[in-house]
Amino acid sequence: VRIQKVTYKSNDGINLIGFVVGDPRAPSGLIIAFHGNADLARNLLHWAGALAHATGQTVFLPELRGYDGLAGRPTYEGAARDAAAAAAFAQDSLAIPPERIAYYGHSLGSALAVELASDRPPHVLLLESPFSSARAMAKRMFVPGLSLFWAILSRVHYDTVRRVSLLRVPVWVSHGDRDDIIPARMGRPVFEAAAVKGEFLMVRGAGHNDVAERGGEAYWDWFRNALKK
């Protein structure tokens, strides 16, 4: 699968990078995939290649300021600007219309995808291991694997449950039943609150970062079914 590193800017002048996996000129569509709090876009290249192969779609992995050597520091406002810049790049530079763009988010990335969908609706929203709200996550700060970023975000109160209840795009959710970072009891209310429901996939034996591996073909089917029109 072809991998291309791309550069673009946020609307406040931060230089950003991303990785386009697949051929954006193909007519099948584009998935913008936002990574989690303790991850990097480049770490998802293997997963993105598997996703492109499974769905026939191109995958765009945008990076955020403060990650992977980029200038700036992670903030609520900065992350929102960077997510918007990724969507603008997809539409303006890759020439993909909104009706052919899907958003995917893992963990913290699920909140970014949901917030972006409120301003720039995709044709479908796929959330893996989403949390119900940043306020609820702040109460779990003692859990290993959570960083200071959660404390910063809790002051702004990402409210994923409320956001999806207002969206008019299908919301699909997957979660591992052994996730000890963001427990499945947070992910299910996100799905239940969605105004337009897709499918909820509970992956048995999966934790926070191995849903794809544990889910196997059922996981890729979850994607394929969500991306059907």
* Strand line-up of the largest beta sheet: 1-2-4-3-5-6-7-8
Name the helix and strand elements from N-terminus to C-terminus, one letter apiece: EEEHEHEHEHHHEHEHH
Oligomer: single chain
**Rg computed from alpha carbons, rounded to a whole number of angstroms:** 16 Å
Q: Share of helix among residues?
A: 25-40%
Number of strands: 8
Shape: globular
Strand content: 15-25%
Largest sheet descriptor: 8 strands, mixed
Overall pLDDT? 90
Spans where pLDDT lies below 50 across 5 or more residues:
none
Summarize this, please?
The chain is of the alpha/beta class and 229 residues long. The chain has helices at 45-55, 76-92, 108-119, 134-138, 148-154, 160-166, 184-193, 211-215, 217-227; strands at residues 3-9, 15-21, 30-34, 58-62, 101-106, 124-128, 171-176, 197-203. Helix 3 (108-119) packs parallel to helix 6 and helix 6 packs parallel to helix 7 (184-193).
Structure description:
Helices cover 37% and strands 21% of the residues. With 229 residues, the chain is an alpha/beta fold. An eight-stranded mixed β-sheet has the order 1-2-4-3-5-6-7-8, sandwiched between helices. A hairpin with a 5-residue loop joins strand 1 (3-9) and strand 2 (15-21). The longest helix is centred in the middle third of the chain and has 17 residues, at 76-92. The radius of gyration is 16 Å and the shape is globular. The chain starts with a strand and ends with a helix. The relative contact order is 0.13.
